[in-house]
Amino acid sequence: MTPPIAPHSAMMGPPRYRRGWVDDAVAAIEADQCRTADTHLIRLIVPALAGIDIYLKDESTHPTGSLKHRLARSLFLYALCNGHIREGTPVVEASSGSTAVSEAYFAQMIGVPFYAVMPRTTSAEKIAAITHYGGNCHLIDDGRFLYAEAAALAARLGGHYMDQFTFAERATDWRGNNNIAESIFNQLQGERCPLPEWIVMSAGTGGTSATIGRYLRYRRHPTRLCVADVEHSAFFDAFCKGDCAQTCERPSLIEGVGRPRCEPSFVPGVVDRMMKVPDAASIAAMNVLTRRLRRPVGGSTGTNFLALCRLAAQMREAGTTGSLVTLICDSGERYRQTYYEPQWLAARGLDPAPVEAVLTAFLDTGTPMGLDILDADNPCQMRGAA
Predict the structure, then answer these.
(1) Is the pLDDT assigned to residue 44 strictly greater than 80?
(2) CATH number of 37-62+174-380
(3) Domain boundary assignment for the chain
């Protein structure tokens, strides 16, 4: 529960600015980057897809367990270096879970209060992780008011609203500085196909896809970027229609990805192709990959993997070879009571079994995958360059 709120000015007295404190905070965060930035790039061996190499960048190994660790680090450095966070400044974020976990970690590291404004439906595991790092959970009933409530709470506290959905695309140095794109290409240098045909990334804030897409252009790599969007989200329609005002009333069931609006950090101009993936297909791909890795992954990783397999199927049908890369966004341990719980799936009308069978057959034998068999009512859709 959120403790009684007192304005920052009442708690701390007049605002102070100690440059030495900021220097120490930046140094602490950069030390964390030196220890943890270069996560493993796993090659998934699939004999049936000879000539197509599949790689998984495992972001679940960060200290806070997800890709959002990178984003949180960048957001804190951005806010510190722009003078938004000073000694004792309360930090507020609007988050469905993973970003808040990572931001709570960094807030605790530099000694500032942290408040996460989240939907009441956020998983208990993520709430527990936030409180573990000393964060406060401010739960609201209607996710449509997430942004407004976060801004209002920051104003009441006299603090800083981090606003990941606006600043994700600009907080990370897309030219390099060991960002995730540079890390992927460095790790691929000794591989058979060091320049992948595609990198696949789902969209939450849009910040990671913006970083990858910009880096590809900056380095003049031929690699293309495919962004996988979930069933209930505004990104795919915004991309297809060229209209970032698109919205989606129904919230995404896949935590961490999909948004009711096209977020400011989403940069459609750096995306070569988008794919809309039904929720049941995301869960199916999550299950298939979990069995192949012999450890659980999350639902957004399933979204990524389904899109990657669709691209692999198209490459196989065209007789082309090369490599494909996607991300393991977080561990499936956070979703034991949701995506891995049959009763939870049944209550939401999700049956991953048919797509699991298709995907398993494709990976085991190379059997072609058809769009029409994924979901008769909501087929997997693609838009963009082939």
Answers:
(1) yes
(2) 3.40.50.1100
(3) 37-62+174-380, 68-169
